[in-house]
Amino acid sequence: AFEHIEYRVDQGVAVLTLNRPASLNSFNATMHAEVRDALKQLRRDDSVRCLLITGNGRGFCAGQDLSDRNVAADAEMPDLGRSIETFYNPLIRTLRELPLPVICAVNGVAAGAGANIALACDIVFAARSASFIQAFCKIGLVPDSGGTWTLPRLVGPARAMALSMLGDKISAEQAANWGMIWSCVDDEALMDSALTCARHLATQPTRGLALIKRALNESSTNTLDQQLDLERDLQRLAGRTADYREGVAAFMEKRKPEFKGC
Ligand code: T3D
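Above: the input record for the complex with T3D. Below: its predicted structure, written as tokens.
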């Protein structure tokens, strides 16, 4: 059992809930370790075909727990690079590389690393009352957890720079209008919308979805020529899956496909 997160698997969906509501689910070392352990467990579990991440309480995640940082004048300055290397970077890499869809249900404020962990997910729903803040600049830090990579790609360089330098709070609606997230929904509809989407994806061709994820992730740094080659290679792999065979057969037989995820 976990102390600072909840983790359960149901109907092919693993739901990971950040659970330190008193500090808006900010990350301490224990919560990082628990998230890492849950994701390890997920990777060993063949029944999981979609991951959904959310938070308990009125916040999604406020990034690093700042009460864990001793910044007293006489204290040795912490090595934040080590914290990023040990905790945040592996988490972002794992989310981006997981060979299944990762959905985020942003239930409240997402600040600092909390915002960028949400934006690293594949499909992001947010409650209307939720918000996104690149809070780093307000304490002299640089956006991390992939924010300086994800943000300009999602909202363009002008908005990415202003968001990062001003640390303004962006509403869920604005985030959706800017294309930063997939969808802003009424608060009471958030978990239903996110779970419905997750359960749907858990019945879809998981290997094909993983290849889509790879193609779109790699497109950020590829030339068109490289991307065309990659599409050829990934289509070759997709075309060898049982789910492709089932998809075509079901279409021809005018019936609903039954995908197995392989
Ligand atoms: O250090 C490293 O390892 C480097 C990596 C850094 C990654 C990062 O994420 S750096 C950025 C860290 N996060 C922030 O700077 C955000 C800090 N929080 C806020 O700015 C505000 O709390 C929010 C804008 C997110 C929400 O504001 P509001 O007014 O809705 O809530 P609040 O009253 O500020 O917070 C509620 C409680 O949560 C409060 O505790 P209290 O007074 O009720 O006992 C507050 O102290 C606590 N809380 C919120 N964020 C954090 C936190 N406690 C510790 N760390 C936090 N990040």
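Notes for the reader.
The radius of gyration is 19 Å.
Strands lie at 5-10, 13-18, 50-55, 59-61, 102-106, 109-111, 123-127, 131-133, 169-171, 183-185.
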